[in-house]
Amino acid sequence: MLWIKSKLSGWILLFFLLMIVAVLTLPEIQGKPEEWLKGNSPKASQGVMNLADWNFKEKGSLRLNGEWEFYWAQLYTPESFAAKTTIQAPEMAVVPGSWNRQPINSKSYSGSGYVTYRLKVMLPTSGRTYAMSVPFITSAYRLWINGELLAEAGKVGTSYEDSFAMYSTKTIGFHSNSSEIEILLQVSNFHHMKGGLRQPFELGLFDQIVPQKEISVGFDMLLFGSLMIMGLYHLGLFSIRSNDRSTLYFGLFCILIALRTIVIGEIVLLKVFPAFPWELELKLEYISAYLALAFFVLFIGELFPNESSRKIQRCFILISICYTVLTVVSPTIVYSRFLLSFHVVLGFAIVFELYVLMRAWYLQRPGCSIILVASFVFAVSIINDMIYANEWLSTTGRASGFGLLFFIICQSGVLSMKLSRAFSNEEKMSAVLAQMNSSLSVKIKERTADLELVNDELMVRNSEMSRLEISRSHLLSNISHDLGTPLTTIQCYVEAILDGIVDTEEQRKQYIQLIHGKVLGMGRLIEDLFQLSQLEARQVAFQKLYLTTETLIHSLFSRYELDARNAGISYQLIISGNAAESGNFSTVQVDVERLHQVFSNLIYNSIKFTQAGGEIQVEMIDDGDKEMLCRISDTGAGITENDMPFIFDRFYTSNRSRNSVSGGKGLGLSISKEIIESHGGKIWVGRSVLNAGTEICFTIPVQTS
């Protein structure tokens, strides 16, 4: 069984790696098909694109990517160039790309403004009929080819008041009587955060471009229809079985993504309703994405409630609602600025949902493997759309629809498996119930006993997993807590050496020694943290032996006698108690080396904070009762009353200035507490008076006959 699970894990890991490679390579393939299929394709340079050697019949259409002439704050017409009036010197802007998302001649421009783009294209032959695919342009434009106005959307103006926006994709055909064409484009944007040509233009023969556009529109319609049908289907399932809310959430999610499909890409909505308001169309695009996130989080949470977190779900839902309200009440120029921040939230949501699904897969929830793979594909498609929206790579903004279509197919398979499993279980249960009729009471008792055993086992395992998780989280938080300062110090020392501040060999050696000391300290800290985490998780194997209390206390006491004497401190052992006085010492079962670790922490703390001439007294009391009591008292600096409740906490030191000199990290007493409690004992501060001394006590259970 473990071998099968290991092999399955390997296949899923391989699939994840392949999908990561795909998400890194597909945007390049989608954005530059000519280079992928046909080698290096021509690019526009300095406002001119030479296609004299390009064979459109053999190589197909071509995207007009590259440097276009760029005239900021100018609305030139073909007559302006024909009349050779005063034309400002052109700058060069890379197309595709928003003008406010790229430096143009080392200048940065605002997203609001108006410009003129111009490109000359050298064709292989004249007298042919060409076509050009015009993408949506933010947010109004007028397009001339060879002086003829062939396309426009919205109203181009020089201010917000005398312009209005519209999104529209077009396919225009034209006949070229010469081997050179001039493309002139006026663009104004006062309504959106990004201005300019965010998508590429594509030039080709008329019978190439038009079929491509028809196929693209057909795919959008296919996606819309498929997603809408599946959404309505799941809503129908919810109406039949309303206690399963996952179908409700998934149905609404599909409908929202379906609506988003017709307002991106080819913007099919405008082809059906040309007069549809631009502002409402863009709000629909944004709101559908925001609400889809909320419903998908609810859907996964409903499928795997034990692996998900209700608090995190509520956070994502609240954030989605806030973005939705912002989009509804504010103009486009305002809410479009928050798209990048939403993509950050979306990234966290993807990580959270994949984590939930991986937990469910690890716990072998039914159907989770298929959902996990489908969700990863869907996540990759969403990441692709995020890359497109932020113009990090030239890609497509419609991949999420295809990803969702794949997810729906997988979800349908899981639903079929679920229904089939339910039917099979029903048949099996009917047979079992028929067999149990003859001896129902006996069967109930047997099953009850079995369930109690299973329940006890599950409780033990859950407790172990909880303890392991707490230990892991403590380990991570503690490492980040106390490694920050030495790492920063090491960084400063290294930078000082690299920057030449340390210019002598002696200083360099001193700095390197300091770095070495910090590294050794970090190593000791990590070792202590690891040991403490193992103790808390009960993963340390104790080598316990049976010893008398007399043998144990002498073993613990004698090892540190020389250290105390060398420090000039009186070191005494007192043995008392009824059993000790009668000579019938009790027996304890202990790991001697672990108790030495406890004893060394306590004795060395006493030595550290006790002046020469002071006294350390170790007293063992054995009354022959349930436990052995050990007191370690000193005449040292003592602990303040406010500090005493916290001295066994991680990283707590009662005197930080003194501790920094001695190199303590506040873990010794925490480790001691875990060791004593693992032996079934207790440890506490008996008394402490500032500048008068401290007494720490611990107990070890004795063995009863």
UniProtKB/TrEMBL annotation:
Its EC number is 2.7.13.3. InterPro entries: 7TMR_DISM_rcpt_extracell_dom1, BphY/WalK/GraS-like, Galactose-bd-like_sf, HATPase_C_sf, HATPase_dom, His_kinase_dom, HisK_dim/P_dom, HisK_dim/P_sf. Its main location: membrane. One of its GO terms (molecular function) is ATP binding. It catalyses: ATP + protein L-histidine = ADP + protein N-phospho-L-histidine. The chain crosses the membrane at residues 215-236, 248-274, 286-304, 316-334, 340-358, 370-389, 401-419. Keywords: ATP-binding, Kinase, Membrane, Nucleotide-binding, Phosphoprotein, Transferase, Transmembrane, Transmembrane helix, Two-component regulatory system. It is found in: Membrane. Residues 478-704 form the Histidine kinase domain. It comes from the Bacteria. It holds the Pfam family 7TMR-DISM_7TM. PANTHER family: PHOSPHATE REGULON SENSOR PROTEIN PHOR (PTHR45453:SF1). This is histidine kinase. It comes from Paenibacillus radicis (ex Xue et al. 2023).
